[in-house]
Amino acid sequence: MKKIGILLLLSVVILATSCKKDPVNPQPTKEELITGDWHLESFSTDDGMVIIGLAGATDTTTFTIQSKNENYQLELNENKSYTASGQMTLVQTTTSTDPVEVEEISVDTTSSGTWVIDGDDLVLTSGDEVSNNKIIELTADKLKMETVTADTVQEEVFGFMVDVVTKNTVVSVFKK
Fold it and tell me: Given its phi and psi angles, is residue 119 left (phi above 0), alpha (psi -120 to 50 degrees) or beta?
C-alpha cells in the first residue's frame, strides 16, 4: 500500500510538472503595429469649406479633394521619430460654383519630427506644428486616419483685411 501511495504521489508530481501551457500570443500594441514604413494609398476630403468674412458679410465656398499619383511615404521609427516625404497630385473640385471648377495641384513635401500615440490619436510634432490624426483603422498592413482642420487667418484683399476660415476633414489611407 505504501508503494501505491508513493507511485500515485510521484505520478501526480510528474503530470503536474510535465503539462505544458500553450504559449500566450499577446496582441501587438498600437505602437508596435504603427511602427514601420507606410505608403500613401489615398488622401481625400469630402467636406472642405472656405468662409471669407468682411464687415459682417460672409461668402462660403465648398470643395472636395482626391489624391492621385501618390508617391508619398511616412516612416514611423521605434525611437518615436518620423519622416514624411513625397509627391502627389491633389484634384480639388470646387462644388459651390457654377460651373463646378476642377483644379489639379502638385504637392511635393518633406517633414520630420516626433510621434506619439495618445489614446486613438497619432500625434505628429514637427517644430511648432502639431498634427492630431485620429486612427480610424490600424492593422499590421493598413493605417487609416482622419485629420480635422479649422484655421482662421486674416489676409489683405484689395486693401481690406478679411477673415479667411478653412475647415475640412482629411482621410488618409496608408499601406505597409
Answer: left
If DSSP codes are grouped into helix, strand and coil, which group holds residue 12? helix
Q: How confident is the model at residue 7 (pLDDT cuts 50, 70, 90)?
A: very low
Contacts of 79 (CB under 8 A, 6+ apart): none
Angstrom distances, CA of residue 134 to CA of 24, 140, 152, 164: 30, 17, 21, 25
Say if residues 64 and 95 touch (Cβ distance below 8 Å): yes
- Vertex 138, ends 48 and 74: CA angle to 5°? 70
Which residues partner with 1 through β-bridges? none
CA-to-CA distance for 34 and 12, rounded, in angstroms? 46
Is residue 121 packed enough to be buried (19+ CB in 10 Å), middle (13-18) or exposed (0-12)?
Answer: middle
Mean pLDDT of the chain: 88
Angle among Cα 12, 18, 23 to the nearest 5 degrees reads 135
Q: Which three cell numbers stand for residue 152?
A: 482662421
d(CA 8, CA 108): 76
**Which string of DSSP letters, residue by residue, matches 112-176?**
EEEEEEETTEEEEEETTEEEEEEEEEE-SSEEEEEEEEEEEEEEEETTEEEEEEEEEEEEEEEE-
Tally Cβ neighbours within 10 Å of residue 2.
6
